[in-house]
Write a structure and sequence with these properties.
The protein is mainly alpha-helical and 81 residues long. The protein has four helices and two strands, in the order αααββα.
Length: 81
């Protein structure tokens, strides 16, 4: 899986904030990735329409969570096929 596909996978079950996405890379995917690289990927995926920001709540780190859009859900399903 690419790093963008891993972000889609991370967000498939629930909205996740930046800290949780970084933890997903480190703990679940066992991939070392810089915070700057994750930020860049999230910005690209926002621009491409795969994810959106959920402004209805913040986590304990004062971060808004990211959500999959319909386009992101479709892309994730195509990966899983």
């Amino acid at each position: 899986m690419t790093n963008k596909e891993l972000i889609l996978d991370c967000l498939m079950e629930d909205d996740e904030a930046f800290t949780q996405i970084v933890e997903y890379f480190e703990l679940v995917a066992e991939i070392k990735i810089s915070h700057q690289e994750v930020e860049k990927l999230l910005e690209e995926m926002l621009d491409e329409g795969y994810i959106s920001i959920n402004y209805s709540w913040k986590n304990e780190h004062d971060e808004y969570p990211y959500s999959l859009t319909e386009k992101g859900k479709k892309a994730w399903e195509e990966i899983k096929e």
